[in-house]
Amino acid sequence: MKNVAIAGATGAVGAEFLKLLAARNFPIKNLRLLASARSAGKKLEFRGEQIEVEEMTENSFEGIDLVFFSAGRGRSKEFVPHAVNSGAVVIDNSSAFRLDPDVPLVVPEINPEMVFKHKGIIANPNCSTIQMVVALNPLHQVAKINRVVVSTYQATSGAGAKGMSELIEQTRAWVKGDSMEVSAFPAQIAFNLFPHVDVFTENGYTKEEMKMVNETQKIMAAPDMRISATCVRVPVLRAHSEAVWIETEKKLSPHEAREILANSPGIIVKDEPQSGGYPTPWEANETFETYVGRIREDFSHPKGLTFWVVADQLYKGAALNSIQIAEVLAKA
Q1: Digit-coded pLDDT (tens) for 232-267
Q2: Which tens digit of pLDDT belongs to each residue from 94-140?
Q3: What gap in Å lies between CA 103 and CA 111, rounded to an integer?
Q4: Between the CA of residue 71 and those of 68, 79, 103, what are the distances in Å?
Q5: Domain regions of the chain by residue span
Q6: Which of 1, 135, 181, 240 is the 20 to 30 Å CA partner of 189?
Q7: Can you state the angle between helices 127-143 and 207-219, rounded to 10 degrees?
Q8: How far apart are CA 305 and CA 252, in angstroms?
Q9: Cβ atoms of 4 and 30 closer than 8 Å
C-alpha cells in the first residue's frame, strides 16, 4: 500500500486520476490532494470519501511514496525536486523532464523496463505521442520504420478543463445566436479547426509537433527515425485522432499489419472498408485502449502504409498511462 499524492488534483487530468485510481483498485493507504492556493479547501470524492484539497507547498510531500504530477510545466519544475528530496517517486505528466537523459520516458506497452531506471522522476509522454507510439512500435519491431508523417486531430481536452468548457460554451452561444468568446484557444474552436497546438518554434513547427518527433525517438530508442508532424486542434471534447503514414525497411502488407496490431497490447483494431468500420473519437471516450483502423497500403510508395489512430486524451494520453507506469512500479 502506498501513500499517494496528486499534484493538480482539481484540473481535468486530476479528476481522471481520482476516477481511474479507484476503478483500477490501485493500492493506496493514504491519498493527499494538492492544488493551488485558490483551490485549497475544496473537497473531492475518492472511494466514497470526501478529501480536502491542500495548497501545494515545498513541505507537501513528507511521508508520500508516490506523486502523480499534472499541474503544468512550471509547477513541475518548481515542486518536483521537493517531492523527490522527500523520498517520493514522481510520475510527471508535463513536458518539464521528458527529454532529460536521466529521466525515463515511459509507455508501458513499449518500454516498461525503463520504469526501474528512474532517479526519482518518471516522465509521462505527450498525449499525441503516446497513442501514436502504441501503434507504431509493434510494426517497428517487425519491419523497422524509417519515416513517419502524421497529422493529428486533437481534442479540446488537451488544453485542459477550460478548453473543453470553451467548446461547449461557444456551441451554446452559436445555438442561441450570441457572440462567441475566445480565451482558451487562438481562434474560435466551435465549428472550426486550426493547425496550431502549442507555440511556434524557429523551424516553423510548433512545440507540440516537435514533442512528437523527439519523444517518439526517445521512447522507441530510434534516434534515426525521421518524423514530421502537423498538429491540428478540432472541435472534439476528449479523444485525439491521428492520420499516420509510415515507410518501413521491410515491406508490410495491410493484412500483416492488422495481424501484428491485433495481437499487440493496448490496441483494438477496427478496420472494415465500410461506413462505420473505423474508430471515431466519440466511441473512444473513456476507454482504455488505442484504436487503429483504415489500415491500407500507400500506393505512392513501395514500402508505405497508412492508418488511423484514436485514443482518449485524458485516459491513455494522460492519467491512465501514468497509472499504468505506477502499476509496473507497484508490482516490483
Answers
A1: 999 999 999 999 999 999 999 999 999 999 999 999
A2: 999 999 999 999 999 999 999 999 999 999 999 999 999 999 999 99
A3: 13
A4: 9, 10, 18
A5: 2-125+318-331, 129-313
A6: 135
A7: 40
A8: 8
A9: yes
- Res 248: pLDDT: 98
Query: May I ask the CATH architecture of the domain 129-313?
Result: 2-Layer Sandwich (3.30)
Active site positions, annotated = 127, 240
* Phi, psi angle pair for 263, to nearest 5°: -105, 20
139 touches 248 (CB < 8 A): yes
Name residues whose C-beta falls within 8 Å of residue 151's C-beta, 6 or more positions apart in sequence. 229, 230, 231, 232, 242, 243
- CB burial readout 175-205, b (16+ within 10 A) else e: eeeeebeeebbeebbbeeeeeebbeeeeeeb
To the question of domain 2-125+318-331 being in CATH 1.10.730.10, the answer is no
324: left (phi over 0), alpha (psi -120 to 50) or beta: alpha
